[in-house]
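User: These chains co-purify. Model them together.
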Amino acid sequence: MALRHAVLAALLDGEYSGYQLAKIFDVSVSNFWHAVPQQLYAELARLEAEGLISGRRVIQKDRPNKRVYTVTPAGLRELERFAATAAKPGIIRENLLVMVQAVDHISAEPVIARLEERAEISAAKIEIFRRTLQRLRGDMDEETYLRHGSPVGPYLTCLRGLRFEQENLEWFQSTARLLRERAAARTEEGG
Amino acid sequence: MALRHAVLAALLDGEYSGYQLAKIFDVSVSNFWHAVPQQLYAELARLEAEGLISGRRVIQKDRPNKRVYTVTPAGLRELERFAATAAKPGIIRENLLVMVQAVDHISAEPVIARLEERAEISAAKIEIFRRTLQRLRGDMDEETYLRHGSPVGPYLTCLRGLRFEQENLEWFQSTARLLRERAAARTEEGG
DNA sequence: GAACGCATGTAAACTGTTACATGATTAT
DNA sequence: ATAATCATGTAACAGTTTACATGCGTTC
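Assistant: Joint model of the four components:
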């Protein structure tokens, strides 16, 4: 289980509640780790019980109270130990690519529709990544920030996320176009 | 559960045994779906029980006998139905990116070592993808194959896998280089 | 007062991973 | 003989997902 390490890594950035963490996992962290809110609430409870994070109650007037967490020295040691072990190859699960894999044997129209849906989502994600990068580097240019800025870890992973989504978008668009052209060519032939 | 659909999509390519399928999932299909052999054996049994694939015993003299499977018309309908539903966004889990996310707070050397390990694995995967693409398109050039070749689904997903690994390789290498430079700069400062 | 966003949790159902087990055949 | 590759499976355990449940405060 490495969800705990993803949570610890995300909490290095500052104090967050389970709810806030869920949002972070939905945007920036989602590039390299997927988790639903319920997983996070459960994992935060376990990490606190093990002393790897410590929680602090925050009383709010305008909203329900919340519990925010920070990484303890023991948590940092756990991350250090994790980084020393061989990283397993990443795992990926993409329903859309399963559909494309099968496209020679099933109707192409629904697959094209899915590709176009996902292209829009990708475009939106690209915008979010761009803004996150801008916010992180402030008024520095990218090269300067990469050489001297801090923290550089979140910047680097966000950069990877951006490239991944850009490649996704391009592939979704070119694949949709290609499948449409092939469908049109077959219609002309057949009709 | 969409492992079943990944298995069905992979079986469209031809008749395969669980063992052969495990190898296919380890190379080409691994770009968009991860599964260990035990999952495949269990899923094949379930799919056959539900009539979505049909198995056939193949007696071999030189090796142990095996059971190969093909997609039934019911299996094809199941795939068709699957393609008509909205594709959930893909999920990804990358330990290596978790480590990079935390790199400002832990020692950089082990992280750099992991990046270099993974860069080599990526380079090997890139070679496999290139050869797979060549084998699929035979003596056609890529553009011609994409327009008129068949099957185009496996070619398109393989192309996505190739691009992904190329981006990985580039990111692993540039990130390792950058972290090494930053570590060197800090040593000079501090020493 | 209905809907929405904030905030957290439990329980059940489903999936996925690991360890173990077996046995054939071929190559060294 | 010993290891490697082919071939398949069971059982125990770990992790993930979904459904359900609760309640505060603000906006429409």
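Chain A touches chain B through 69 residues (CB under 8 Å).
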